[in-house]
Amino acid sequence: MLGFIRGEELELHTLSTHMVYVQTLCAQQSNAKQAVILR
What we know:
- The protein is an all-alpha fold.
- The chain contains 1 helix and no strands.
- It has one helix spanning 7-38.
- The protein is rod-shaped, with a radius of gyration of 16 Å.
């Protein structure tokens, strides 16, 4: 795929990106739920 560029570093970067994505997704979902409740 990307060749073997320091596998650990790449894995760490992918993991942190994934965590941010999941947190953002969860935040969006909870905001959407609150918006529905407020209506």
